[in-house]
Design brief:
heterodimer; A: 310 residues; alpha/beta; Rossmann fold; 5-stranded mixed sheet; 12 helices; 12 strands; 17% strand; B: 276 residues; two-stranded antiparallel ribbon; 10 helices; 7 strands; 12% strand; globular; binds thiamine diphosphate; binds magnesium ion
Chain lengths: 310, 276
Amino acid sequence: MNKIPNRQVICETLMEHAATDKDIVVLCSDSRGSASMTPFSKEFPEQFVETGIAEQDLVSISAGLAKCGKKPYAASPACFLSTRSYEQCKIDCAYSNTNVKLIGISGGVSYGALGMSHHSAQDIAAMSAIPNMRVYLPSDRLQTKCLVEALLADEKPAYIRTGRNAVEDVYEEGNVPFEMDKATVVCEGSDVAIIACGEMVKPAKDAAALLKEQGISATVLDMYCVKPLDRDGIIKAAQNAKAVITVEEHSPFGGLGSMVAQVVGAECPRKVINLALPDAPVITGTSKEVFDYYGLNAEGIAKTAAEAIK
Amino acid sequence: MENLKALAYALRQDVVNMIVEGKGGHIGGDMSVMETLVALYFKEMNISPANMDDPDRDMFVMSKGHSVEALYAVLAAKGFFPIEEVIAKFSKFGSPYIGHPNNKLPGIEMNSGSLGHGLPVSVGMALAKKMNKQDSRVYVVMGDGEIAEGSVWEGAMAASQYGLDNLVAVLDRNRLQISGCTEDVMHQDPVEARFEAFGWNVYSVDGQDIDALCDAFEKAKTVKGKPTLVVANTTKGAGSPVMENKAAWHHHVPNAEEYEQIMKDLKEREEAARHE
Ligand SMILES: Cc1ncc(C[n+]2csc(CCOP(=O)(O)OP(=O)(O)O)c2C)c(N)n1
Ligand SMILES: [Mg+2]
């Protein structure tokens, strides 16, 4: 069982580069501990900026730094980063086209019993609706590493959402299929296509194994690049299937499901079922309890998929 | 009159039990804010389960919502809900007692958890009370890390602009936030002068002293045309040396050994307060 959360991989990858690239700057808003950025702040104090509990400031300062040649990584809880600082993300990062990488940590329902103030179930919709903002939800620590390496090499704004807990590996060490802005095909099948992002990819992969036992063959697509959405990948997966299931740790509105349905509806119409969080404050519990309650687990996904192609 | 000093130590024990049972919570800020809540709910504010729907009640907003465990303990002691139920259910699956204030529960006016909202919301409440010609008052508690949020200062400006003398903000000045000392993370001194410059009437008192707090709240009632800030100088984790003044105890859950020592310290202080 993997014990390394994706957020820790982000810190480690940035540290590998920060020694030689002095323009890399990490910013936190009293969030260095939860962002796993404490090691970075200790090893590179000159490349670390603390803004205090001021997320709007965090994002605007990042934009100013980027304008002057720095490569800022602003790490703060996804809930605050995406809604409290929304306008700063829209104007100072996306509209002004500054090279700010926004790292939303403890995304989705990671904060469990802390309630809706701490859940980010609208960040995909909000961020995706901003022109020139890219949105990434890596599925495991290995893919997170590939993604951060790719982001270090470009100069445009992006929002990256990770969860709080370590998640089981989807891929194998040393053998991680990754092409920037192309969804990763986790497995291929002919009956149903399951398209997931972030921490829902692993249960989607497990669901495919359960379906196989029932004689149903499923494609699983890891749509870590929610924006720019891999339209070709979706069309290819959907064309081979009788139905498409989308899975995301997000509101049912404006997220992966909505986007996939737009593409499938326009290009290769067939049934699309969206598994997501409810349009309500979620039940109190750990993220696992919440996922189980709303069927966002392997069993729930498999059940929905099997029914969809009946 | 109940011995409020002893009560504050008794309620701290409820908080510790809640956090240990629920395996989570923000213990440091609960401990520092306890006397403020006891002073407000047991002496200053006109609020109880009997008048909780009365438009003329005093209103309270817990802007540093992560200190919800202290608020639960105080509301339970006021009779809003049974403390046994809170301790048994806090943060557990399906529970109504979540880790931040939620106004589906009786006694809680506004939901919070995202810092920097409570002051401007309270400005709206105090303004409405002025518009409605009501004499009741509005109280809000903020953390000292929290006031780095710009929205706090937007609210502070508005409160002064509208001369909201029916609004009292308490700053839990425990000098710590998650990443360490507030003065290292984003300094706030001289916080009194900053609020004064924004047009506020300011008192700075020992925030672990209920009489001193009540004295400030009473004086605030006589001030006309200005909002009041009470800087409650406190100790994060107040109640046991195990947790006092330790940044890591912002949200540390006591282990068995720590639990025993903390409960022993709190009981001793409760007893001492009873015999003072
Ligand atoms: C807008 C926002 N940003 C970040 C957080 C995460 N957070 C919770 S408590 C806390 C520290 C609060 O410090 P302080 O205000 O001093 O409270 P206290 O010391 O009384 O616990 C932070 C950063 C939050 N709840 N809301
Ligand atoms: Mg503090």
